[in-house]
Amino acid sequence: MIRLKNIKKSFGKQMVLKGIDLTVEKGEVVVILGPSGSGKTTLLRCINFLERADSGAITIGDLSVDCHRATKKEILALRRKTAMVFQHYNLFKHKTVLENVMEGLVVVQKWPVERAKERSLQILEKVGLSQQIDMYPSQLSGGQQQRVGIARALALNPEVILFDEPTSALDPELVGEVLSVIQKIAREGITMIVVTHEMGFARDISDHVVFMDNGVVVEEGKPNEIFHAPKEERTKQFLKRITPEWRYSI
Amino acid sequence: MNIDFRFIVTAFFEIMKALPLTLVITTVPLLIGFAIGIGTALIRLYKVKVIYKIADFYVSFLRGTPLILHIYIVYLGLPLLFDVLAEKWGWSIRSNSIPLIVFVFVAFSLNAGAYMSEIIRSGILAVNKGEIEAAYSIGMTTSQAMKRIVLPQALMISLPNLCNMFVGLLHGSSLAFSISLMELNGKANVVASTNWKFLESFIAAAVIYWGMTILAEKVTAILEKRLRMFIKGGVA
Ligand SMILES: Nc1ncnc2c1ncn2[C@@H]1O[C@H](COP(=O)(O)OP(=O)(O)OP(=O)(O)O)[C@@H](O)[C@H]1O
Ligand SMILES: [Mg+2]
């Protein structure tokens, strides 16, 4: 289980996160929605300390960390319980697909190379990249690169995978293949926190939806409640703006 | 005045005998300088307490002064330093038994280290920050990320400049003759003055340097071609 308590973060004078609380149960898929600049990316980055929150506490499984005081060791321990899938993939360019996936197992989790390779191959098969294992990231399409990014995260068997707009850098025709891979692993019971602007996908995949605006959680609940019966005005406006076609299709 | 073309050939083979020494005083400092360069670059990037000031000074001073002066200063200064230390620690040897080539190694390595630290530093800064974050996100420590993700790519990015460094050092090595080391240039001077055929000897020496330079450029081109695949980068 993951629990964020009163996470605050400022960049200079601008307060980007104004006290975020969030609980994610094991196996749950939480989708975070919100307008651009609302602090979604910052929140994800605070969870694995790519950004250090000014205050608040983060609990993942049996590890609790005070953001302000967290030591290097605690940060490392926390990062080893999480994995992240980035908007721009951020694959290791000098490593092959297989090496990208094996890297964390071998270097961080100290697996023997043979076992790491075996597991990585299984996972690459799961994301549909068995044919590309010896290629370099620059030889792949965006959709393939992002699936490597997902495999890299998945290989580590983390307690939670953080997705930051995993499809927003992709050409439209490549979005589907990535979303369906995420959907597939979601069904396997992996805990996920997903920031996305793909509303249909968000509705299908989520167990819980959080709507953020301006550094606060405005509203949260079951996908049905948030998408079809939002209580807050700001949520309504956001959904109307981002999913105009729904008004016709429902 | 006329040129004795046949002597150019004779001189060429005579001077070639000094090529091994030239290669030694080029590659040894290149390797030592490479190690110094990586160390210095990391110290300056991470702003390691106090010593980064020294590193800043080192790079600024050596890049701000000509190589010939580094040779002179090391040649004249190192013995003094050595003797003081020898006295203090009770070593049995004195500076006059230091072989000439050591001064060249020290001066060239320090010089190469300063230049290479700048090359490597800009290589490190050119590595995609997102990949470093990805390394952290999978739980790597700072030094694991540096060793496994950043440095390999930084060195690939720096490769063309590091090869240029080799050429610069190769040409710079001709200054070793100023403290009487008989490398290519020194040998050329000797062949020239014993035969009274200066122009021919120096043309022969020039051809040798040129040939080595072309060779180095060829090797660089091959290496670069093999590395371009990664450097080109992904879609993002
Ligand atoms: N490193 C930084 N330095 C300064 N300001 C930052 C930094 N990172 C983010 N911000 C600011 O914090 C605010 C929230 O940014 P964030 O990226 O978290 O928003 P977001 O909800 O992810 O937006 P988007 O949907 O556009 O990705 C923005 O105003 C942004 O300019
Ligand atoms: Mg964002």
TrEMBL record, chain A:
This protein's UniProt keywords: ATP-binding, Cell membrane, Membrane, Nucleotide-binding, Transport
The UniProt entry, under SMART domains, shows: AAA
Cellular compartment(s): Cell membrane
Membrane-topology descriptor: Peripheral membrane protein
Chief site of localization: membrane
Recorded GO MF terms:
ABC-type amino acid transporter activity; ATP binding; ATP hydrolysis activity
Q: Name one GO cellular component term.
A: plasma membrane
Occurrences of domain ABC transporter (ranges)? 2-239
Where would one find coiled-coil regions in this protein? none
Please state what the protein is called.
L-cystine transport system ATP-binding protein
Q: Which organism is it from?
A: Thermoflavimicrobium dichotomicum
What is the taxonomic lineage of the source species?
A: Bacteria, Bacillati, Bacillota, Bacilli, Bacillales
TrEMBL record, chain B:
GO MF term set: transmembrane transporter activity
* Principal location class: membrane
The membrane topology of this protein is: Multi-pass membrane protein
Q: Name one GO cellular component term.
A: ATP-binding cassette (ABC) transporter complex
CDD domains named in the record? TM_PBP2
Tell me where it resides: Cell membrane
In Swiss-Prot or TrEMBL terms, this protein is called L-cystine transport system permease protein
Q: List the source organism.
A: Thermoflavimicrobium dichotomicum
